[in-house]
Design brief:
- With 989 residues, the protein is α/β, with parallel strands linked by helices.
- It has four domains: 7-216, Growth Hormone, Chain: A (Up-down Bundle), CATH 1.20.1250.20; 227-458, Up-down Bundle (Growth Hormone, Chain: A); 463-515; 527-791, 3-Layer(aba) Sandwich (Rossmann fold), CATH 3.40.50.
- The chain has 40 helices and twelve strands.
- The strands form two sheets. The chain has an eight-stranded mixed β-sheet with strand order 7-6-5-8-9-11-10-12, sandwiched between helices.
- Helix 9 (295-330) packs parallel to helix 12 (434-456) and helix 37 packs parallel to helix 40.
- The longest helix is centred in the first third of the chain and has 57 residues, at 155-211.
């Protein structure tokens, strides 16, 4: 049968309602983000955000249901609501900043405790978004009422179409917000864009409503004889299916975060897939709903299938790890590969969620259609939306605070599925004809299948703990054991022991810390142990008498335990957002015993931003070692707003010690974090531990030099020595550079901000691409010690330094320079790895032939490049006095007297570079360049030495002469080498 023609003006309402869904999800994403910046990311805070947002929408929908017959023109009311929403969005950022600044400075310290919930912050959060949320809750009922009054034919089709368009627009709103608007124009710009869209949309609907006559609501229809379901039952179905659907959403997002990763991009892709299923379900039912013989029984079948399909997702879920592993193996680590990775992630999400959400998308149109045929009439539109939204609030409370922590992922999902199956039973149960008896049998069979499925199907912990999104391996090897597993309120925590006894604690599949017991394998500490101990060691070296210390992130608890080894410490507050993390860390005893048993240790379960805003305490040192900033929510601990507020919690002259990873990160991302840090702190210096960077920043203008005192403290000194930190020499070896140097070396990138989240928008891609902070790695590859020359760094001269533990390929492939100096005349047995022994052997051979066995002049000329390589290895990472003594000793060799004089000049240049003598470097290198006869590698070293010496002395005229005369003789590759790039940045050339 042909559908009646829709007037052109009214047909425009449908695409406009698509745009309403588009902007509505932008608001949900942005406003939730704003409120989490204020309330934090703790489980109760996330619950408050959802309750305020969803609760406001429920209130709005209920108001529409209650007063629907009195609204003369729903489309005009809809236009007014959208207009006000738009202007609220345009003004939201300024209002939010002003309100929260006042709250941080005045309200929270006066009315809130440091831990737990805070009523005043909830009230302020509600005041910020509740009015808009109420208005958003009115949009669907008002638009639907207006359409149904103007086009009363086929009401089920209209309801389904509107539900589909609004949900389909929401899918694009999610994706546009995450991948386009926030990365390019930030949160304020995204909010203003959506607001302007709403204002224009409101004007369009207003013009249509003024031209189109909207009749009064039709009188409520008598109850249909074929309906068989009371309005009360249908409203309870709307509420309970809203509860189950929200439990599904929360559980599936947690499950899929173990497959796709926990980044903001991954979460938005999961949410978009969930909403797409709802939209497709609404689209499918819209063309069939008016022709259904028994909509109640059809709704019962939908509820059966939704519950059964939800249970079946457990089986699909285990297979999703194999799909991700295959995809990572197939994709190249490029920008194009990252696009395909996100597409593949969406397909995996849809494979899990699309079937049950398709069923869920049919429920609201069906329930509304059924209620429209009862005396409830038009009011049912608002009532159904309100009851469904209240169910969503109940689903949030159940999933976050009962389901996940008490039942776990599997049984939380099964509980929600059982609700849907039982709803189907309730709808199919009324007595009647033999056909009804068959429906009862089907209902009971569905219930039995759901129960059996929940008992038989299981989630494999070897898969959930595999970190497949990083490593591309679908499951842990059989030799690994999951010692601890808990689905916490904010993350799933695992402790895994591998075959060699190495322990990892993981959050949502990503290792956050590791520990190698002394009884495991070689007993050599893990790379993470070095970092955790160095965080505490470097903090106490710079501030040895610190008494009050805060640690952000518990991890394995080793940093906290190390801090407590100092007798000067009076109190350590460790702030951890996830209690399950602390429980899992108990597996790391005795390495972290002090964190649990020392009376000075206090573990606080709270979001760090909220804790510092409300506690009012001040600390001598704050150590920040949260999870990686690509994890959703974590990047807010690396923003200029957080650092500015954190400074208020640090005593004058106090320190912030910030952990940042250099792996799966990038130079621009590091530059953005360091620019943000300067919003709250002054001078800083960066140390390196393996692939981790430790930034020590002071509240003052100048960071005080480290002290030997921490290394001389009996208990603390012994602990640090186990991790190759025996004194200031060892600390110096790990020093990368200070603020003045890094500001020149790193690119100019916008500071990471809560409102312009540069890191959150780009870090997930850096993780996929496996990029590294190349500018930091380049510093270790400079042939001469540029940083020492420009910073005038003081090297300490007590004892002998230990080579710092590093895991980056460039460092691990080379022997210890100091060890090479010691072993140049020995057998090299102290140089551990085989690659190091071969490399050291080559250099030792050249040294022996040239300076001990007195090779001929021709052989010397052929081998002299090896001596330059030896200088490149020894000088940058050796103490100036030791490096200089080594080369001066070599110059005393009798072999040198038999060779042309330029070789003595070379050794003198090596000594000058080792001593960090800029004047000698320029003079000697220039002499070698003037003498000619250099190989390309020798010429490059000499030009670099001469130029660096001139620039370090601020001799611009000499530097200009060197550039004009000698730089053209270098190849393009040499001129663009890391050392020359660094030199240009440091000198401003």
């Amino acid at each position: 049968m042909m559908q009646p023609r829709i007037p052109r003006s009214l047909s425009l309402l449908f695409p406009l309602f698509f745009l309403s869904g588009f902007s509505g999800l932008i608001y949900e994403s942005i406003w939730s983000h704003y409120l989490k910046l204020f309330l934090g990311h703790a489980a109760y805070a996330q619950t408050v955000v959802l309750i305020v947002f969803i609760g406001g929408m429920a209130i709005g929908a209920w108001i529409c249901g209650r007063f629907a017959p009195r609204i003369r023109n729903p489309l005009l009311a809809y236009a007014a609501a959208e207009f006000v929403i738009g202007w609220c969005a345009i003004a939201f950022h300024r209002v939010f900043v002003g309100a929260t600044d006042w709250a941080y400075a005045t309200l929270l310290p006066a009315t809130c405790s440091a831990e737990g919930w805070c009523l005043s912050s909830w009230i302020l959060a509600a005041a910020l978004i509740l009015p808009q949320s109420v208005l958003l809750g009115t949009t669907f009922p008002l638009m639907t009422s207006g359409i149904l009054r103007a086009l009363p034919q086929d009401p089920g089709r209209r309801i389904g179409l509107l539900y589909f368009l609004n949900s389909f627009g929401a899918v694009f709103g999610v994706l546009a917000s995450a991948f386009l608007l926030i990365p390019t124009i930030g949160l304020p710009g995204a909010s203003m864009t959506a607001g302007l869209l709403n204002v224009l949309l409101a004007l369009g609907v207003y013009l249509i409503a003024r031209r189109s006559g909207i009749p009064a609501p039709a009188p409520p229809a008598p109850r249909s004889a074929g309906n068989g379901a009371s309005p009360g039952l249908l409203l309870w179905v709307a509420l309970l299916t809203g509860l189950s659907s929200f439990v599904y959403e929360i559980v599936w997002i947690r499950m899929l975060s173990l497959v796709l990763g926990s980044s903001t991009h991954a979460f938005e892709l999961m949410l978009a897939s969930f909403i797409l299923g709802l939209a497709l379900g609404g689209a499918w039912i819209r063309g069939r709903i008016d022709g259904l013989r028994d909509p109640r029984r059809f709704l019962a079948a939908v509820q059966f299938l939704m519950g059964l399909l939800a249970i079946a997702t457990i089986a699909l879920y285990n297979a999703s790890f194999d799909a991700m592993a295959w995809m990572l193996a197939a994709l190249s680590r490029t920008a194009g590969g990252y696009v395909l990775f996100n597409v593949g992630s969406s397909l995996i999400s849809m494979a899990i969620m699309i079937a049950p959400t398709f069923m869920a998308g049919m429920t609201l149109p069906l329930i509304t259609f059924l209620l429209m045929r009862t005396p409830t009439g038009e009011r049912s539109i608002g009532y159904v939306y309100a009851w469904n939204t209240l169910g969503s609030i109940a689903g949030v409370l159940f999933a976050v605070h009962i389901g996940l922590p008490q039942l776990g992922l599997k049984f939380s999902l099964a509980s929600a599925a059982m609700i849907d199956v039982l709803l189907g039973v309730a709808l199919a149960w009324p007595a009647g004809t033999p056909a009804v008896m068959r429906w009862r049998a089907a209902a009971l069979a569905s219930l039995a299948i759901a129960l059996a499925g929940s008992m038989v199907l299981d989630i494999d912990p070897a898969r959930t703990a595999s970190g497949v999104f990083r490593y591309g391996v679908a499951a842990l090897p059989s030799s690994s054991t999951v010692l601890f597993h808990r689905d916490g309120k904010t993350a799933t925590i695992d402790v895994v022991r591998h075959a060699e006894g190495h322990l990892y604690i993981q959050s949502n599949g990503k290792p956050d810390a590791s520990y190698r017991p002394a009884t495991a394998g070689s007993g050599e500490p893990s790379p993470d142990e070095y970092t955790q101990v160095l965080l505490a060691g470097v903090a106490l070296a710079h501030r040895p008498l610190a008494q009050d210390i805060a640690v952000i992130g518990f991890g394995a608890g080793i940093s906290t335990a190390t801090i407590l080894a100092s007798p000067a410490v009076r109190r350590v507050d460790t702030i951890e957002i996830e209690p399950a993390m602390v429980e899992g860390a108990r597996q790391f005893r005795p390495a972290n015993e002090a964190a649990f048993s020392d009376p000075r240790s206090r573990i606080v379960y709270e979001d760090a931003k909220s804790f510092f805003a409300r506690s009012g305490r001040r600390y001598d040192i704050v150590i920040s070692e949260p999870s990686n900033p690509w994890v959703s929510g974590v990047s807010s601990l690396f923003t200029q707003e957080f650092y500015a507020r954190l400074r208020r919690s640090v005593n004058p002259g106090g320190l912030l010690v910030q952990w940042i990873h250099s792996y799966e990160f990038s130079t621009p991302l590091l530059a953005s974090v360091l620019a943000a840090l300067q919003a709250g702190f002054g001078d800083f210096v960066v140390y390196q531990s393996g692939n981790d960077l430790l930034v020590v920043a002071t509240t003052g203008d100048r960071l005080e030099a480290p002290s030997e005192q921490a290394f001389l403290t009996p208990g603390l000194g012994r602990l640090l020595a186990r991790y190759a930190l025996r004194g200031l020499d060892d600390l110096d070896l790990r020093r990368v550079a200070g603020r003045a140097t890094l500001e020149r070396l790193l690119p100019a990138i916008p500071a990471n901000s809560d409102y312009q989240p540069y890191v959150d928008s780009h870090a997930a891609e850096a993780r996929f691409l496996r990029t590294t902070v190349d500018r930091i790695d380049e510093i270790h590859r400079y042939p001469i010690p540029l940083i020492d020359l420009f910073e005038h760094r003081r090297w300490h001269r007590r004892g002998s330094a230990s080579e710092p533990q590093r895991t980056n390929a460039g460092a691990s492939a080379r022997p210890s320079p100091e060890a090479l100096i010691d072993l140049i005349g020995g057998d090299g047995a102290g140089i551990g790895r085989e690659t190091n022994r071969v490399y050291a052997g080559t250099l030792r051979t050249a040294y022996r032939l040239l300076l001990q066995e007195c090779a001929s002049a021709s052989t010397t000329a052929e081998l002299w490049d090896a001596m330059v390589s030896l200088a490149i290895l020894v000088n940058p990472a050796s103490r100036p006095d030791r490096a200089q003594a080594f080369w001066l000793g070599a110059a005393q060799s009798g072999c040198i007297a038999r060779l042309p004089g330029r070789y003595a000049t070379w050794l003198a240049l090596f000594a000058a570079v080792g001593a960090r003598d800029p004047q000698g470097m320029t003079r000697l290198a220039t002499a070698l360049l003037d003498g000619g006869g250099l190989t390309p590698g020798q010429r490059e070293y000499a030009v670099l030495s001469a130029l660096a010496g001139s620039l370090a002395r601020s001799d611009a005229a000499s530097a200009q002469q060197i550039v004009e005369r000698w730089m053209p003789q270098l190849t393009e590759a040499q001129r663009n080498a890391p050392a020359f790039r660094g030199l240009r940045a440091l000198s401003g050339l």
